């Protein structure tokens, strides 16, 4: 229809309206383990087909003014609802790295693809910065205790980047024994990796990477002593 201009900044207007958890015009209360958030059915329905069908169908939530969520923890539910009003959510400072995984699961459950993609990106940005061994173990256990929604690949990427160091750790052996699905995925990932090839500085023969790590060995053709294991693929050689 010509002559009608549709404003492009609707989400900015929604952000500035301060309607998040505001009783003004609210027609629904979301309850989760003692936490209550005032919301608007229209906003929820615009973001999620799940909620849209709920409010249009014969569900009790379509008639009552209370929606109780039991499958997710309060911080995750708050992140989901805050995203609906601000198109953003902040990480929980008191939570571990699995927080974004939980938001990702919540978004998948409620069919919110934009939030799901955002949570995946946030997880991708922090998974390489897991601070402690305890946190890494907890993250692996959580990911493999939950349905696979695509985030396992990200933790496998980080693990295989550091596999030579981790395999020397007793605690990592314990993880591989206790979380067998993770171990199977790691083995498949290692098998698919392109083999690293090193070139002898002396005779220029190509030598495939092996389990020798950084242990000195000799070129099988000219017997020049070399050191294996450079991350950037270069060969460091020491002639005896």
TrEMBL record:
It holds the Pfam family BTB. InterPro entries: BTB/POZ_dom. Residues 26-86 form the BTB domain. This is BTB domain-containing protein. It comes from Fusarium equiseti.
